[in-house]
Amino acid sequence: MENSRIGKLMFLETLILGAAATAVGIAFGVFFSKIITMFLLKMTMSSFSGDISFSIGISAIIITIVLYFGIFCLMGLSGLRVINKSNLVDLFKGAKVSEGKSAGSYVLLVMSLILISYGYYLAFTLEAEEIVQMMLTILVIVVIGTYLFFWGGFQKILYILKLNKKIYYKNANLVATSLLAHRAKTMATTMATIAILVAIGTTAISFGYVLIQTAEEQTYEQNGFDLYFYTGDETLTNDVHAIFDKHDNTIVDEIRFERYMTRPEGINIPERRKYFFGKDRYLRAYSESQYNAMLTFQKI
After folding, report:
1. Is the distance from CB of 138 to CB of 123 less than 8 angstroms?
2. Are 161 and 173 contacting, i.e. CB atoms less than 8 angstroms apart?
3. Who contacts 123 (Cβ-Cβ below 8 Å, separation ≥6)?
4. 149-161: per-residue pLDDT in tens?
5. By the 8 A CB rule, do 119 and 79 touch?
6. pTM exceeding 0.85
């Protein structure tokens, strides 16, 4: 067969395997979706008590199919291009051909370690607010450091291991080191990508957990109540009590205050702050005695 025909068969095979893999992946994703959601909520929202319903997002399935179809098409076209430009005999021997020996670079090794260490140093020493502002910078520093380590530093470490005869010839170290050095470039890119994806995923989950916990703590510190509402209608208050009784919830304690609305005149206010003042703007205010009682109530 000609290369073009073999390439077309490979392209078709890629699409068939891709379609099967996508179908199996979607099936497992739908089956485990509720379990995964419950697991993530357990990690990020320990106090969540709502009902997690099982649902199938048709739009999400369509987007997944289109996205992966595009990916497998690119993979198939890439393979088709390689087959058309190469000799089939050389392709059969491709896995056995070394990507070339590289002694690595001390410069890249040192730079990668400095960047990775600096990125993690910032992540562990900065305050929460500063980390949020510096998050993208930290992520870029760690990503660059990781790729530099696997592209240059990793080969240098293998080279150093080869020079140390006691370690190199011990047990199966010779075989393992030789295999890594044989496909060093491909291995380095793959390992770097996996490391980055794991780091980003872990960072995203950790950030979500910290964000939710911080939001809950700050909300309670600012409000001090599990539930509060403003009303001048006693009927609404009775409705709230009825809802608690309906769901068998006991009110531990409650307190009522009169709230006043005041409109400041805005005298001697900087120009950039005057947008806050106007006919439709007002501030909520309490009397001093009610404010002190509120603080005492919250501490209890």
Report:
1. yes
2. yes
3. 131, 138
4. 877 777 777 777 7
5. no
6. no
